[in-house]
Amino acid sequence: MGKGRLEAFSDGVLAIIITIMVLELKVPHEATLESLRPLGPVLVGYIVSFTFVGIYWNNHHHLIHLVRKVGGAIMWANLHLLFWLSLLPAATGWVGEHPHSAWPAALYGVVLFGAAVAYVLLQTIIVRDRPDDGVLRAELGRDWKGKVSPVLYLAGIAGAFVTPWISDICYVTVAIIWVVPDRRLARAAHAVPE
Q: Residue 26 gets which letter from DSSP?
Protein backbone atom coordinates (compact mmCIF):
# COMPACT_ATOMS: atom_id res chain seq x y z
CA MET A 1 0.00 0.00 0.00
CA GLY A 2 1.24 3.48 -0.75
CA LYS A 3 1.90 5.84 2.11
CA GLY A 4 -0.53 8.37 0.58
CA ARG A 5 -3.45 6.09 1.38
CA LEU A 6 -2.27 5.65 4.97
CA GLU A 7 -1.89 9.41 5.34
CA ALA A 8 -5.33 10.10 3.85
CA PHE A 9 -6.99 7.57 6.14
CA SER A 10 -5.21 8.98 9.20
CA ASP A 11 -6.09 12.55 8.22
CA GLY A 12 -9.74 11.53 7.87
CA VAL A 13 -9.82 9.87 11.29
CA LEU A 14 -8.19 12.90 12.92
CA ALA A 15 -10.69 15.21 11.23
CA ILE A 16 -13.55 13.10 12.58
CA ILE A 17 -12.02 13.18 16.07
CA ILE A 18 -11.93 16.98 15.99
CA THR A 19 -15.49 17.10 14.68
CA ILE A 20 -16.74 14.85 17.48
CA MET A 21 -14.96 17.00 20.07
CA VAL A 22 -16.44 20.25 18.78
CA LEU A 23 -19.92 18.74 18.90
CA GLU A 24 -19.50 18.50 22.68
CA LEU A 25 -19.59 22.31 22.81
CA LYS A 26 -23.30 22.90 23.38
CA VAL A 27 -24.69 26.31 22.49
CA PRO A 28 -26.27 28.02 25.52
CA HIS A 29 -30.01 28.74 25.37
CA GLU A 30 -29.62 32.31 26.58
CA ALA A 31 -27.88 35.10 24.67
CA THR A 32 -25.81 36.38 27.61
CA LEU A 33 -22.14 36.19 28.46
CA GLU A 34 -23.11 34.68 31.81
CA SER A 35 -24.64 31.70 30.01
CA LEU A 36 -21.18 30.88 28.61
CA ARG A 37 -19.65 30.39 32.09
CA PRO A 38 -20.69 26.72 32.43
CA LEU A 39 -19.01 26.02 29.06
CA GLY A 40 -15.63 27.17 30.40
CA PRO A 41 -14.24 23.76 31.45
CA VAL A 42 -15.60 22.06 28.32
CA LEU A 43 -14.06 24.76 26.11
CA VAL A 44 -10.69 24.55 27.88
CA GLY A 45 -10.75 20.75 27.50
CA TYR A 46 -11.56 21.14 23.81
CA ILE A 47 -8.69 23.58 23.28
CA VAL A 48 -6.18 21.29 25.00
CA SER A 49 -7.42 18.20 23.15
CA PHE A 50 -7.52 20.05 19.81
CA THR A 51 -3.91 21.05 20.46
CA PHE A 52 -2.93 17.43 21.09
CA VAL A 53 -4.68 16.24 17.92
CA GLY A 54 -2.90 19.01 16.00
CA ILE A 55 0.46 17.99 17.45
CA TYR A 56 -0.09 14.35 16.49
CA TRP A 57 -1.32 15.33 13.03
CA ASN A 58 1.74 17.51 12.41
CA ASN A 59 4.30 15.01 13.68
CA HIS A 60 2.49 12.08 12.04
CA HIS A 61 2.70 13.90 8.70
CA HIS A 62 6.47 14.32 9.03
CA LEU A 63 6.95 10.77 10.28
CA ILE A 64 4.94 9.16 7.47
CA HIS A 65 6.90 11.28 4.96
CA LEU A 66 9.92 9.16 5.96
CA VAL A 67 8.18 5.87 5.15
CA ARG A 68 9.41 4.11 2.03
CA LYS A 69 6.83 1.31 1.90
CA VAL A 70 3.80 0.64 4.07
CA GLY A 71 3.67 -2.91 5.35
CA GLY A 72 1.43 -4.67 7.82
CA ALA A 73 3.46 -3.63 10.89
CA ILE A 74 3.20 0.06 10.02
CA MET A 75 -0.53 -0.22 9.27
CA TRP A 76 -1.25 -1.93 12.61
CA ALA A 77 0.97 0.48 14.55
CA ASN A 78 -0.80 3.40 12.86
CA LEU A 79 -4.21 1.92 13.74
CA HIS A 80 -3.00 1.49 17.33
CA LEU A 81 -2.19 5.22 17.46
CA LEU A 82 -5.54 6.16 15.89
CA PHE A 83 -7.33 3.93 18.42
CA TRP A 84 -5.92 5.90 21.36
CA LEU A 85 -6.58 9.22 19.67
CA SER A 86 -10.16 8.17 18.91
CA LEU A 87 -10.75 7.87 22.67
CA LEU A 88 -9.82 11.53 23.13
CA PRO A 89 -13.33 12.95 22.47
CA ALA A 90 -14.89 10.75 25.18
CA ALA A 91 -12.13 11.52 27.67
CA THR A 92 -12.33 15.23 26.83
CA GLY A 93 -16.10 15.25 27.30
CA TRP A 94 -15.86 13.49 30.67
CA VAL A 95 -13.16 15.84 31.94
CA GLY A 96 -15.15 18.85 30.69
CA GLU A 97 -18.23 17.69 32.57
CA HIS A 98 -16.28 16.90 35.75
CA PRO A 99 -13.25 19.23 35.79
CA HIS A 100 -12.57 18.79 39.52
CA SER A 101 -12.86 14.99 39.66
CA ALA A 102 -10.00 12.53 39.90
CA TRP A 103 -11.19 9.70 37.65
CA PRO A 104 -11.90 11.81 34.53
CA ALA A 105 -8.52 13.56 34.90
CA ALA A 106 -6.75 10.22 35.34
CA LEU A 107 -8.54 8.61 32.38
CA TYR A 108 -7.63 11.59 30.19
CA GLY A 109 -3.99 10.95 31.12
CA VAL A 110 -4.32 7.24 30.36
CA VAL A 111 -5.57 8.10 26.86
CA LEU A 112 -2.70 10.57 26.33
CA PHE A 113 -0.18 8.03 27.67
CA GLY A 114 -1.58 5.33 25.38
CA ALA A 115 -1.30 7.65 22.37
CA ALA A 116 2.29 8.52 23.29
CA VAL A 117 3.27 4.86 23.59
CA ALA A 118 1.51 4.08 20.29
CA TYR A 119 3.35 6.93 18.54
CA VAL A 120 6.72 5.71 19.84
CA LEU A 121 5.85 2.20 18.63
CA LEU A 122 4.96 3.54 15.16
CA GLN A 123 8.18 5.54 15.09
CA THR A 124 10.21 2.49 16.17
CA ILE A 125 8.71 0.31 13.44
CA ILE A 126 9.42 2.95 10.80
CA VAL A 127 13.05 3.19 11.96
CA ARG A 128 13.30 -0.62 12.01
CA ASP A 129 12.11 -0.71 8.41
CA ARG A 130 14.98 1.61 7.45
CA PRO A 131 18.01 -0.23 8.88
CA ASP A 132 20.37 1.61 6.52
CA ASP A 133 19.19 4.99 7.78
CA GLY A 134 21.67 6.08 10.45
CA VAL A 135 20.59 9.72 10.15
CA LEU A 136 16.96 8.93 11.03
CA ARG A 137 18.02 6.66 13.90
CA ALA A 138 20.35 9.36 15.29
CA GLU A 139 17.76 12.13 14.99
CA LEU A 140 15.08 10.08 16.72
CA GLY A 141 17.54 9.10 19.43
CA ARG A 142 17.64 12.73 20.58
CA ASP A 143 14.08 12.62 21.80
CA TRP A 144 13.96 14.53 25.10
CA LYS A 145 10.32 15.51 24.52
CA GLY A 146 9.35 11.91 23.85
CA LYS A 147 11.06 10.81 27.07
CA VAL A 148 9.62 13.57 29.27
CA SER A 149 6.04 13.33 27.97
CA PRO A 150 5.17 9.82 29.28
CA VAL A 151 6.68 10.72 32.66
CA LEU A 152 4.47 13.81 32.83
CA TYR A 153 1.42 11.78 31.77
CA LEU A 154 2.09 9.22 34.52
CA ALA A 155 2.60 12.06 37.02
CA GLY A 156 -0.70 13.56 35.86
CA ILE A 157 -2.51 10.23 36.25
CA ALA A 158 -1.18 9.74 39.79
CA GLY A 159 -1.59 13.43 40.63
CA ALA A 160 -5.28 13.32 39.69
CA PHE A 161 -5.94 11.49 42.93
CA VAL A 162 -4.24 14.25 44.94
CA THR A 163 -5.91 17.08 43.01
CA PRO A 164 -6.90 17.27 39.33
CA TRP A 165 -4.94 20.53 39.07
CA ILE A 166 -1.75 18.46 39.08
CA SER A 167 -3.07 16.55 36.07
CA ASP A 168 -4.02 19.76 34.30
CA ILE A 169 -0.54 21.21 34.80
CA CYS A 170 1.18 18.02 33.60
CA TYR A 171 -0.97 17.63 30.49
CA VAL A 172 -0.81 21.29 29.49
CA THR A 173 2.97 21.25 29.99
CA VAL A 174 3.27 18.38 27.51
CA ALA A 175 1.10 20.25 25.00
CA ILE A 176 3.25 23.37 25.38
CA ILE A 177 6.54 21.55 24.82
CA TRP A 178 5.14 19.82 21.70
CA VAL A 179 3.51 22.90 20.12
CA VAL A 180 6.84 23.55 18.42
CA PRO A 181 6.91 20.86 15.70
CA ASP A 182 9.35 17.98 16.00
CA ARG A 183 12.31 19.32 14.04
CA ARG A 184 14.17 16.02 14.22
CA LEU A 185 11.85 14.50 11.64
CA ALA A 186 12.20 17.49 9.32
CA ARG A 187 16.00 17.27 9.57
CA ALA A 188 15.93 13.54 8.89
CA ALA A 189 13.61 14.01 5.89
CA HIS A 190 15.96 16.58 4.36
CA ALA A 191 19.13 14.63 5.11
CA VAL A 192 18.04 11.26 3.78
CA PRO A 193 17.19 10.61 0.14
CA GLU A 194 13.86 8.85 -0.43
A: P
pLDDT in tens, 167-189: 999 999 999 999 876 676 666 66
DSSP state of 180: S
Cβ proximity of 181 and 62 under 8 Å: yes
Cβ(38)–Cβ(24) below 8 Å: no
Nearest to 52 by CA among 15, 85, 23: 85
Q: How far is CA 81 from CA 99, 100, 138, 140, 149, in A?
A: 26, 28, 23, 18, 16
- Is 66 in contact with 136 (CB distance < 8 Å)? yes
Could you tell me which residues come within 8 angstroms of residue 39 by beta carbon, excluding any fewer than 6 positions away? 25, 26, 28
According to DSSP, residue 27 is labeled P
Q: Could you tell me the pLDDT band of residue 84, with boundaries at 50, 70 and 90?
A: very high
List pLDDT tens digits, range 51-64. 999 999 998 988 88
112: containing domain? 3-191
| Nearest-angstrom CA–CA distance, 12 and 15 | 5
Question: Could you tell me the pTM of the whole model?
Answer: 0.88
Q: How many folded domains does the chain comprise? A: 1
From the list 116, 115, 90, 103, the residue with the least C-alpha distance to 160 is 103
